[in-house]
Amino acid sequence: MTSHPLPASATAATAPAPAPVAAPPARRRPRLALCFTGGKDSTLVLHLLLHKPNLLASALGIRHARDSDHGDDRLHLPPAVLLPPNHQSTNLAPLYDFEFVALVTFHPKSPRFLAHPLGGIAAQASALHLPLRRVEVIPDPDFSAGYANAICSLDLDVLVTGDMMDVCSAFMRRAAKAAGVPLWCPLWGVDRAVAWDLVLDAMKMVPVVTCVHLPSFAKAWGDEEAAVEKRAREVVGKPVDRDALNKWLVPAAANDGGGVDLCGEMGEFHSMVVDGALFHERVELPGRAELDPQGTYIYWAGPLTRDPLAPVEKDEDGEKETKIKTESKAATGVTKSNVAQPSS
């Protein structure tokens, strides 16, 4: 009996269909948050991330692979926030792909910050139209462990700070390492003049001096305490523009003038930014210059010094204080977390 092969069309019809090719899993965008005090450093990093990320490479020289000759990788961009290589172009600046989670402010219980009051930080977040997460650090069993646990609670892939140098024995780096979260400091080691160029020119930021450490300026402003205090009262509450920078800060930073850090990285002075390229409205900081009880600082005291999430105090007539407009707007979008280290 002669067999007859089936037609090709019949063979194709009965052959099993090829298994569908599974789509590659969607790439999870890395979650990134910024430690935010409202000062010029953290606000500058925010502008670099969300406004002009090309300056991370062109102005700061951020490298995207660790230099084996450099023992510290804080200068380098974590690979997680770069798009995959096939999305890169050799003719373009690197592309950054991350989910910006929030501005994050860590604080102890019942905080009272002279230089960066929480009310002012909340007003800034409101003007930036960005979420602000306040995370209380509960020292259990100690502050370092509590800080690490606070970082863990944020569920991040990268934590970013505006640190330019180490002033607290690498506290933040140790806390982030204990939390298993990479810490990125884009401004680490930056030339101070370049930093001010970015603040004032590239980002059009307006930093207002909120606190001056009097002993730091004793050499530049005179040995008499009254003279130093008088000069500090003249600059606190005022913006730092080019004129102010050249008039009082650059001379004080000169070696023969006092040797303070031009960006105040040793705590010589502090600022809060009230306007800039990313701000949708200017933040008003009403107040007055006051001397702290220890006679060490002149700081800017005003309505925003009060914690916007704290109970509203009553005046002598039993009426609630009237909050100024910027403060009431600032409370919107602020979330608070309490984080405790589990007991072992």
UniProtKB/TrEMBL annotation:
Ranges annotated as biased composition (Low complexity): 1-16
Region annotation Disordered: where it falls in the sequence: 1-24, 307-344
Polar residues bias: start-end ranges: 334-344
Gene3D superfamilies, per database record: putative n-type atp pyrophosphatase, domain 2
Protein origin, superkingdom: Eukaryota
Short name of one Pfam family: Diphthami_syn_2
All copies of domain Diphthamide synthase, residue ranges: 114-285
InterPro entries: Diphthami_syn_dom
Protein name per Swiss-Prot or TrEMBL: Diphthamide synthase domain-containing protein
Organism: Allomyces macrogynus (strain ATCC 38327) (Allomyces javanicus var. macrogynus)
